[in-house]
Amino acid sequence: MSNRGFSYGGSCDLTIENVRTVLSFKGVSHCYEQSGEETLSDIWLNISSGERVALVGPNGAGKSTLFKLILGLEKLERGEIRVFGHPVARCLHRVAVVPQSSTVDWHFPISVREVVMMGRYVHLGWFRSPGAVDREAVESAMESMGICDLADRRVGELSGGERQRVMLARTLAHDADLMLLDEPLNHVDLHTQEMIFHTLEALSAKDKTVIVSTHDLGVLVVHFTRALFLDRKIIADGPPKEVLTPQTIARAYGFEFHKDYQPWEKSSNS
Amino acid sequence: MGEILEFLVEPLRYSFMLRGLLGGLLTSLSCAVLSAFVVWRGMSFMGEAISHSVLPGIVLSYVLGINLFWGALAASLLVVVGISLISSYGLVGEQTAIGVVFVGFFAFGILLLSKVASASDLSHILFGNVLGVSKEDLIIMGLVASVVIAGISLSYKEVLTASFDPAHAAAIGLSPHLVRNIILVLLALTTVSAIQTVGVVLVLALLITPGAAASQISRRPGRIILFSVVIASFAIVVGFYVSYYANLASGPSIVIVLTIIFVLSAIGSRIRRGRIA
């Protein structure tokens, strides 16, 4: 944690090594301090630019921990994580996260536009006010999420789907190259869900990398290029069609799906 | 017209009254600027803890014959650090840590007070005395108000970010703990400088009620802070004249005015919302 302070508002002057590899995990393990229980065990992982990765697993599988480790919010005890070839503290402004909505104080009297503007602060840092570039980025982010008409509303008044669009707009305003979305599909209507996926696909077309944690197996095949099944360790990793088998699901979730209900089977066997 | 002017000017002919009013206005400025954040971040209990636990510091400065500000400041910083340490070691939750530490300090202060001070000193410390504001107090209040206003304006976007979404703040390299500590230090300074005007027991009203009332009137952070300042200054002025003409204690008069403003703004907001819906 001690090496994190300086990166707020700092810009990355590092050369981007090995630019195809956006994110790499080398033998990463993690235990919770209080319980000593192992939440992640020996993770090896390489993610390249432009990939849309679904991080799938039950509650407590370590999905949120994995995100926190990438952002440097949890102490890394064993292994090595590199973002664009560097420790994350040195290129935070290239990584954006949509946190679970439960970590946000929705009663706070703050407007949609102000929240989206928070995505720009990483580039500003202390004592600098947003300028024309930042305001433009905010307007265009709100436009792509279809929330311009909500700009002056208080976030607390919005529905779950609208809130999630605000959070995603904030991430767009951040203009990061690696985006982490923690359970963005919870409490979200179908329209917003489609909007989120549409945006993610547009981003990955521009070589941005997206990692989405989700319980929703139904969306994997259509919307992601890669599925990563996690339950403390990586259970399966590959294109969704290949990875999404009853065996994988049983290993990740610890139960067998009913045999008559396998909508993925046709696509995976064809 | 002349009568109204005479009514307003008469108390100010005495220089100690003028100092009292100025001191009250300066205090209300720093309190009101912080008030919105205290309310939004749910730091009311922390505010109460700081205001009550300065008591031993005040009594000790009284014994030593130095300005009450310094003793109170030392005590309040000690309490803030103590609470952070206890809760960060995970011994007990923060609310419990606040409760334990502040009651302990307050009790210690009362013990000291019972040994060294007279009953009238006691009531001034507990309930404030606008009329006891010295020139030195005014300078200190002015300095505190400047520090608070400068501190909040310079870290406004950081305070907003860390209050609304600490996870996002941490993810962009902005430590929520740092922001929290900035607010706590400003809160300690403000509380300590406000004690002269409204006293240990009632300072909480200046820290919470303006922000609470302003949140009923507006829904934007910037405006809420502005309204808080207006409400607090108005209450200081009205409370000041009421206490002069009705011969009442100044601290409680100010607080009662604030409380009435809050009740009216809450009723107003209910009526307005009812119409919209």
Helix run count of chain B = 13
SS strand fraction of chain A? 15-25%
Order of strands, widest sheet of chain A: 5-6-7-3-8-9
Biggest sheet descriptor of chain B: none
Helix content of chain B: over 70%
CATH architecture of chain B: Orthogonal Bundle
Number of helices of chain A: 10
Count of discrete structural domains of chain B: 1
The number of distinct β-strands of chain B equals: 0
Mind telling me which CATH architecture of the domain at 5-96 and 177-269 in chain A this is?
3-Layer(aba) Sandwich
CATH topology of chain B: ABC transporter involved in vitamin B12 uptake, BtuC
Description:
The complex is a heterodimer of chains A (270) and B (277). Chain A is α/β, with parallel strands linked by helices and 270 residues long. Chain A has a domain at 5-96 and 177-269: P-loop containing nucleotide triphosphate hydrolases (Rossmann fold), CATH 3.40.50. Chain A is 31% helix and 22% strand. Chain A contains ten helices and nine strands. Chain A has helices at 63-71, 112-117, 121-124, 132-144, 160-174, 190-205, 220-223, 240-243, 246-253, 265-269, and strands at residues 21-31, 38-48, 52-56, 78-83, 95-98, 178-182, 209-214, 226-231, 233-238. In chain A, the strands form two sheets. A six-stranded mixed β-sheet of chain A has the order 5-6-7-3-8-9, sandwiched between helices. In chain A, helix 4 packs across helix 5 (160-174) and helix 5 (160-174) packs parallel to helix 6. The longest helix of chain A has 16 residues, at 190-205. The termini of chain A are far apart. The model of chain A is unreliable at 1-6 (pLDDT under 50). Chain B has a single domain (22-276), classed as ABC transporter involved in vitamin B12 uptake, BtuC. Chain B has 13 helices and no strands. The model of chain B has no long low-confidence stretch (mean pLDDT 88).
